[in-house]
Amino acid sequence: MLLKLLNRIFTIGGLLFVLLFAGSCQGTLDKSRQDPVARVFDNYLYAEDICLLLPDGCSNMDSTEFTQTYIDQWINKQLLLHHAEFNLDLDSLDFSHLIDDYRSSLLIHEYRKQLVLNKVDTTIASSQIEEYYTRNLKDFELSNPVVKALYIRIPKDNTKVESIRELLQSTNESSFEQLVSLSYQYADRFDFFEDEWVSFNLIIQKIPGSPDDYEAFLRSGALMEIEDENYIHFLQVHDYKLSNETAPLEYVRLRIRDLVLSERKMKYLKELEESVYQTAIQNNDFEIFDEK
After folding, report:
1. Alpha carbon 254 to its chain's center
2. Which of 48, 119, 238, 243 registers the highest number of CB atoms within 10 A of its CB?
3. What confidence tens digit (pLDDT) does each residue in 161-173 have?
4. Which of these three, 241, 257, 283, is where a domain ends?
């Protein structure tokens, strides 16, 4: 659609300009108002209009794609706007109150955003996170199991398969260190989730023929070995929490931080509005007239 529209609007030279100006946008700014890149009825789109919208760091290819997309969208918008203005009874439409409301909302939103950015302390102490967690345990019930685990995928013909199998069944610390070393060297994939909680679903979906009953597997000792055409998959779960149990604190720590910060922002804005209101009362900045 875009190329058809461009063929109707541009000369060959104009089309080449559109495709090339994005890569050297700065050089077009001085003369952009003499070089329109598109026209719809009496409205013109200029290179400068698009240059100002180009994301920083765009490659020439990305800039050209952005330019082509923007021109196509601009043309469609102008065509629809023209038809709307032509077919609607503009005298019967009054958008002034909507425009005023929209402007007011934008100004208030920007003012609040700037105040929150500059005035609200974003430092959240660990003690605050722990206190929030303890106070709201019922809100952190798991919908799916989470685990601390090791996942190893190794080619079937690898000579270290048997060594890894034996090390997985060992319980001493030196065996674990050897397991990690061998896995890093020889495994096709090695996911090490010993120090963090992860969703069990994210791990189990990597393994073909995984068990249907996740909770039964986790309760059984949680050591799995599955073989497919090319690989042997090992999964060893060292700790787990089941669905409907309370999520471990570390699993929800970042979420709680965001919740605490959100509460802090909302409290600040509420106090701000109350302060503005009370100051206005003291200064007699507004009044409500009795109906007569």
Report:
1. 15
2. 48
3. 999 999 998 878 8
4. 241
